[in-house]
Amino acid sequence: MGSEVFGVHAIRSEEIAATALLCSTLRKAEQYAEDLSTDPGVLGAAITKYVLDQQGHRTAVALFVSGRRQAVPWISDDRAVLANGWPPNRAVK
């Protein structure tokens, strides 16, 4: 089985940014995400667990808003359907 790594992503009003940091432990990722979620212009910080050498394996594990951990919503693996419905399509006006 591959090693686990944890990616931290900034969430802004118009985008979910690329991975800001990869951490070898969940605790390090949580510390960074907690701090990142308080930065100006950042709505929250999400943590995703990846398993090395396993194609397509990723799991949302934590979400921080204003320095506080939140419940993580379920997201479809194909990223097309969110737990609360379809994501908005920016191409449709």
Word description of this protein:
- The structure is a single chain.
- By secondary structure, this protein is mainly β.
- It has one domain (4-70).
- It is 12% helix and 40% strand.
- The protein contains 1 helix and 5 strands; from the N terminus they run ββαβββ.
- The protein has one helix at residues 26-36, and strands at residues 4-12, 15-23, 44-51, 58-65, 68-70.
- A 5-stranded antiparallel β-sheet has the order 2-1-3-4-5, covered by helices on one side.
- A hairpin with a 2-residue loop joins strand 4 and strand 5 (68-70).
- It is globular and about 35 Å long.
- The N and C termini lie far apart (45 Å).
- The model has no long low-confidence stretch (mean pLDDT 81).
Mean pLDDT: 81
Q: What Rg do the Cα atoms give?
A: 14 Å
Number of domains: 1
Number of E-type strands: 5
What is the succession of H and E elements?
A: EEHEEE
Query: What is the count of helical runs?
Result: 1
**Kindly, what is the distance between the CA atoms of the first and last residues, rounded to a whole number of angstroms?**
45 Å
Walk across the major sheet and give the strand order. 2-1-3-4-5
Residue share in helix: 10-25%
**Strand-pairing-aware structural class:** mainly beta
What fraction strand?
35-45%
Q: Report the sheet with the most strands, covering strand number, pairing sense and barrel closure.
A: 5 strands, antiparallel
* Molecular shape: globular
Question: What ranges have pLDDT less than 50 throughout 5 or more consecutive residues?
Answer: none
